[in-house]
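Design review, sub-item: ligand-bound model
Attendees: FS, YL, KQ
YL presented the inputs for the G3I complex:
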Amino acid sequence: MSTKTPGLRCAALIAFLACMLACGGGSNTTVNTPPPTPQTLRQAATAHGINVGAAADSQYLSDSGYATVLGSEYSQLQAENEMKFGIIHPGVSTYDFTGGDALVAFAQSHTMAVRGHTLVWHNEVPTWVTSGGYTAPQLSTILQDHITTVMQHYAGKVYGWDVVNEAFNDDGTLRDTIWYDQPGIGLAGLKTLYIEQALNWAHAADPSAKLYYNDYNAEPLDAKSDAIYAMAKDFKTRGVPLDGIGFQLHIDLTFDNPATLASLTSNFQRFAALGLELHITELDIRLQDSSSASLAAQAKLYGEIAAICVQQPSCKVFQTWGFTDKYSWIPGAFPGWGWALPFDANYQKKPAYTSILNAL
Ligand code: G3I
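KQ shared the predicted structure:
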């Protein structure tokens, strides 16, 4: 015998019917389950159409911790060094694709995109070029051969290239380099014409590859970003093949102020308005200690930059320069500094990791 009173029975029936209506009851029930929370940077970034990348080096792929994190957390890799001129083209008629090929094979086996770095740079030019006594016409031939051979080797495997890297000084003038004016490839004094030439050679070598200009200290509005913007605008106006700009973002915590972040956002907007892709290519945030306060401040800044990328539809790449503090160029280049990346030296996720994941 039921102990419920008729009144309670009635209330229970009303509650049951209300629930059936609210829940869409009956046999045709629609369950509104929330989308799964992304578990990796890769899952989170993919939802925004962003490649989340890391610079990598093939010598570390045998380190299982390194390979596991790289292959699971990232959707893109870029050779930190192994596609640079001096390594990939060490002799006049010698190409060595060993390291780059190993990175490409790893990427393919983990369904990752590969971004190429870099074809025209004042650094890492091998001695056979710098001490060869070559004339400008000879250097022109050497550079075109280099661009063509490397890009055709990786055609269909590397989706895009930093064709020209760091061609400007911080004051917006062009850097004096072997490729520009010392002696250059025959276009010395003609401003960005040698960059245009390199882009045209690159497009001819692999018409399906995306072509980028990449630089540092050009993230906020400043003399260098003004000069790059003027070049990009000119190139887009005249149909020179340029698909986007790489913003390196090797920074420290002084970058974290509202004016600088607003300037970065504005800079991104003006390049996006030209129809260019924006890639964050070499982000790292160096610290002078690993205190929890410093790691928290670093995490905040990582999150702010990731959010700026997410909010700018033309920002297609969010990439760090390495991913583990175990292997980073920072301590060697900035004595006393380090701890710059989202994973610590034991592959543990730092606060920066969580902050990026939350922003993506
Ligand atoms: O491979 C040799 C090794 O055989 C030798 O024993 C050792 C001795 O010093 O040097 C090794 O080469 C070093 C190479 O990194 C690989 O570790 C070079 O000396 C060293 O100069 C080189 O530094 C790289 C630097 O570019 C110059 O190419 C850094 O790893 C790399 O992080 C850095 O990356 C650049 C980007 O390409 C462009 N933007 C700035 C960024 C940071 O400087």
